[in-house]
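**Folding the chain**
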Amino acid sequence: MRVPFVMASLDWLIVAVASFTIFQIMFHYLSARISIFFCKSYQTLTDIQKTEWNSRVVSTFHALVVGLLSLYLLWFDDAVNANPIWGDPTLVKLNVGLTTGYLISDFLLILWYWEAIGDIYFIIHHSTALYAYYYVLGQGLLPYFANFRLIAEFSTPFVNQRWFFEALGYPKTSLPNIINGFLMTVVFFLVRIAVMPPYYSKMIYTFGTEAFYKLGLRAQFAWIAASLCLDVMNIMWMYKIGRGCYKVLLACKKQQADIQKNGKQH
């Protein structure tokens, strides 16, 4: 009975190590070359800005890959959808393995380049996610719920793009910034806040079932505690995004009023 488990563990470990290696190569070598090709202004950034820029390029790439794969699995992985706690986790493990490699890579980069990209909330986020993913990868538990949470990554490219515009000196009231800010707010709300009721409804529905008791106390605690911790941070970030949008709208309104006032004066 131990051989299949060992082989399964080796499979996801290979995926995680490969993912870690790819994201490290992207950060240290590929990001700068790609960025210079598409954005000449990259060369004018400070070293600290380049570090964060490269980190966010990697983050965006990871978000798009795992986000699309998670959406595909939610639509087409019948085994997982039919049995959210104990369904066949093979494809979900692939997605979670990719994310695990990224999280470890990013975690180490945050510690190494703390001055540039250090953030205690990301440390908490990454540590919490890795704690929960241990049960998914090591024991094949909760595949549906692990994959469901990965659709949250669809908001990441818009958050990163906001930072790119800021680093390049785009005014907050510029059209590209306003469009991206609107999309960021809407997508963040949809994939991180609006999904909470169906997520927790499905979780609560499993309480008291044989499949839930079979998880054991440690896995149950990891599942519930990690979900709550991550969503507290999502609510906090949503609040900050909402405040930012409100400030931009006020600035746009003031700018429009100034234009009208200056026009009347002429």
In short: Residues 15 and 97 are 6 Å apart (CA to CA).
